[in-house]
Design goal:
Blueprint: H1 3-13, H2 41-54, E1 59-63, E2 66-71, H3 77-85, E3 94-100, H4 102-111, E4 115-122, H5 123-131, E5 136-142, H6 155-160, H7 166-188
Parallel strand pairs: 3-4, 4-5
Antiparallel strand pairs: 1-2, 1-3
Helix pairs in contact: 4-5, 4-7
Length: 189
């Protein structure tokens, strides 16, 4: 077995603490109906990591031993829409994510997520999750999340930097997303 496989297995095995009952409901780009219930939580998390690492999926939500949501998009928007439309999907779930910034951490706390597993997380996300008693396991923790072209701090991360409460962070993220969408529409008009 390769060193990376052993590291991944150790990371995944350490992720098995305190998760809730079997999944109900369907959300995301690829609904859970496309996946069988896995024999164990470990198997579901292994598949979630495979999707993130090998298929370029942004975020996978696991409840019990089932994958209940798979997002292929980028950014915080899909996770915030899930919090608004189907908050029960987040309750007691494990979120496996490629990048977790302050806003994603706030949504996880607000949604009652049991654990967050991330390829990359910001220090601010780590602090928000810790304050909300949501365990984080990240392969890399960085000072802040960068924007998509890597020229500066992510605008959502920057806009939420002065806030500590999940509600305030989510409100600031929504306001920034609205402004970014408005700016994009005006640029294409």
């Amino acid at each position: 077995m390769s060193e990376s496989t052993l590291s991944r297995r150790h990371f995944l095995l350490s992720s098995l603490v305190g998760l809730g009952a079997a999944a109900t409901g369907v959300a995301g780009v690829r609904p859970s109906g496309d996946f069988a219930d896995f024999p164990s939580l470990e198997d579901a998390i292994n598949e979630a990591w495979r999707l993130v690492e090998e298929e370029g999926v942004c975020r996978v939500i696991v409840r019990g031993s089932a994958i209940v949501s798979v997002e292929r998009g980028r950014g915080i928007g899909p996770l915030m829409r899930l919090l608004d439309a189907q908050p029960q999907m987040l309750a007691d779930a494990t979120v496996v994510d490629s990048v977790v910034g302050r806003a994603a951490a706030a949504v996880a706390v607000k949604g009652g997520v049991a654990k967050v597993l991330a390829r990359t997380a910001s220090e601010g996300a780590r602090d928000i999750l810790a304050a909300g008693n949501v365990p984080l396991e990240a392969k890399v923790v960085v000072p802040h999340i960068m924007n998509r072209d890597l020229t500066g701090v992510c605008p959502i991360e920057a806009a939420t930097g002065g806030f500590r409460s999940p509600d305030a962070i989510i409100a600031a993220a929504r306001q920034t997303l609205d402004a970014l969408r408005k700016g994009a529409k005006e640029a294409t008009a």
